[in-house]
């Protein structure tokens, strides 16, 4: 099984890159494990406290569970992936059954910040984008998908997103094997990633 980590700042275009990679391979060959599903369960604290959580800090993720799930998949064992809600900042009672596949794309802003996770990634990718472009995408996404106002998004961006990006996410770029500038718009960069995955898959077949 080939494990590909795809990291990058909030709004950098990671989801677009993942989508374009998945379009190339059959559904049963590639699965996606989003880092967002592994945010810690915060049911022990109030909603007001949960809404203050910095989701751009490595401490917000349950890395051990994510790593254990990847190790299980590598052994051919299905896993029950958590479902996380940004509206309640809680894990749902339901889980998603994930079956092993030949390629696993692990996608999320903090993927390259954890050394234990990096150790089990076969290919490490960083999707890069201009800060202004990222902010524009974050505003659109958080208003539409997460029910936030423009003011709430801008406050969060300046209080947690930007500082955490500079402290944790941007420095993690140095661990990347491949850097894709301009995010999902960089067709050449995406094709390079696809060709590398294809090459690995051909090796495992032979």
CATH topological fold name: Rossmann fold
CATH superfamily: P-loop containing nucleotide triphosphate hydrolases
Question: Can you tell me the number of structural domains?
Answer: 1
**CATH A-level architecture:** 3-Layer(aba) Sandwich
Structural description of this entry:
It is a single chain. By secondary structure, the protein is of the alpha/beta class. The chain has a single domain, classed as 3-Layer(aba) Sandwich (Rossmann fold), CATH 3.40.50.300. It is 41% helix and 20% strand. The strands form two sheets. It has a five-stranded parallel sheet with strand order 2-5-1-6-7, with helices on one face. Helix 5 (131-146) crosses helix 6 (150-169). The protein starts with a strand and ends with a helix.
Short characterization:
With 206 residues, the protein is of the alpha/beta class. Helices cover 41% and strands 20% of the residues. Helix 5 (131-146) packs across helix 6.
SSE blueprint and pairings:
Blueprint: E1 2-8, H1 14-22, E2 30-34, H2 47-50, H3 63-74, E3 79-85, E4 90-98, E5 103-107, H4 115-119, E6 123-127, H5 131-146, H6 150-169, E7 178-180, H7 187-205
Parallel strand pairs: 1-5, 1-6, 2-5, 6-7
Antiparallel strand pairs: 3-4
